[in-house]
Amino acid sequence: MKNAYEQLTEHFRKIGDLEHVYSISSWDEAAMMPEGGGAARGNAMATLGVVIHEMQSSEKIGEWLDACSNLDLNDWQGANIREIKREYDSVTCLPSGLVHATSLASSKSEQAWRKCRAGNDWQTMQPLLEEVVNLARQSAVVRSEKTGLSLYDSLLETYEPGMRSAKVDQLFTGLKDFLPGLVDQVVKKQSRTPLLTMGNNFSIDKQRNLGVKVMGILGFDFDHGRLDVSHHPFCGGVQQDVRITTRYTTENFVESLMGVIHETGHAMYEQGRPQGWEGQPVGVARSSGVHESQSLLMEMQAGRSPEFLKFLAPIIRENFDVSENEAGWSDDNLHRLYTHVERGLIRVDADEVTYPLHVILRYEIEKALIEGDAQVADIPELWNSKMSEYLQRDTRGDYKDGCLQDVHWNAGLFGYFPTYTLGAMMAAQIFAAAKRAMPSLLDDISRGEFSNLLNWLRENVHGEGSFYSVSDLLVSATGEDLNERFFVDHLKQRYLA
């Protein structure tokens, strides 16, 4: 007869199988599904979501957890019990009816967002988003009552365990004080050497070919993943079948390529998670912030480094059939292109200097929404006010490139946005530790050799799954807890030195 731990892990393997189907269906909805399938897909995913929720909240889990206290478990099994209990406590907070309503409202809102954004249509979007926010507030109230956390912290906990908004406020206040002045300095410095044009007609086929080639250089396993197109770039699927997407515009190839590198960082984290723990909570990625650290480590720390860009330049020229004698395609101009800083409107296209300001804006708005200090109707005005203050941009009447540019709130993801910049801080800290551990790392990158870096990440981050807490993972990998100085020093060195 199987003991309590064996029954518990078998139960979670079944949950993992259903989550596998849900994840691939979600990817298909975003990348491949015909428009007419939206309503039926939404209903099917809502039903599957309830089935998964009911399995995750089964009373048997509580009984098995109690029985496991009498078993002699090894360290990884003990960590798995800890993570199962954390997940169980989180899931059992919410009644099935609220989960079902949230799934339906989010699916409807997310599908409408694709049209509303394209049509600059805030009027249609507002009531749909109001329903999503209302349900998110209800979830926050329930979680807050069970955990003792504030409304917003109860949602932040689901993405970044152990992080609190007071700490986020502290970290972000420092960045808000530092970044606007840095942006001024960098923009002024870069204006002395203007960017040269490379044209504005880049074949999508050639962009895709370039992206796939770079994915291979970074170490993406194409036997267990693929690249597709969606309205909003993302990484989905499962460890054995990772799906990443990007989006293309013929006017600009940088957006798609850096989107591919970013999502490849996410994907390689997924592909490198600990073997033998599939479906088990201890085997999943540690947090959203840690996940973002892996995408930004590849895109920003390594992908926009002078060493990698020098290696990449001839590959780009060959891909688009141009010569380095064409001024706009020189190594120097390509480097300036990939490290160009400007006060843009779009978060996903932002450079690493201005990007945190985009995140801080969203964090402040969503925190106010959840805690009742702002309403959905206030979003356009709040958005414009903060964009004007932080990035000197006016978004009045521009919903497409303003408050409708991201899908996160429509999909019900509240508490998620701060993890982007927490991830940027982690990326700088982890990359600094990797360089200390491997003094030849930048030379490797200059040759397009990423295997040593990937192996180090597999050993110190990817392969640890959720064995450690976020703080303990950082201490194990880098020698200290999260410290923003690595990110600040990185920006100063890259853009002012």
Ordered list of secondary-structure elements with their pairings:
Blueprint: H1 4-31, H2 38-56, H3 59-68, H4 75-91, H5 96-118, H6 122-147, H7 151-159, H8 165-190, H9 204-218, E1 225-229, E2 235-238, E3 241-246, H10 254-271, H11 288-302, H12 306-319, H13 331-338, H14 355-370, H15 379-391, H16 418-437, H17 441-446, H18 451-460, H19 470-478, H20 485-496
Parallel strand pairs: 1-3
Antiparallel strand pairs: 2-3
Structure notes:
By secondary structure, the chain is mainly α. It folds into 2 domains: 4-159, no CATH class; 165-496, Neurolysin, domain 3 (Orthogonal Bundle). Helix content is 63%, strand content 3%. It contains 20 helices and 3 strands. It has helices spanning 4-31, 38-56, 59-68, 75-91, 96-118, 122-147, 151-159, 165-190, 204-218, 254-271, 288-302, 306-319, 331-338, 355-370, 379-391, 418-437, 441-446, 451-460, 470-478, 485-496; strands at 225-229, 235-238, 241-246. A hairpin with a 2-residue loop joins strand 2 and strand 3 (241-246). Helix 5 packs antiparallel against helix 6 (122-147), helix 11 (288-302) packs across helix 16 and helix 14 runs antiparallel to helix 15 (379-391). The radius of gyration is 23 Å and the shape is globular.
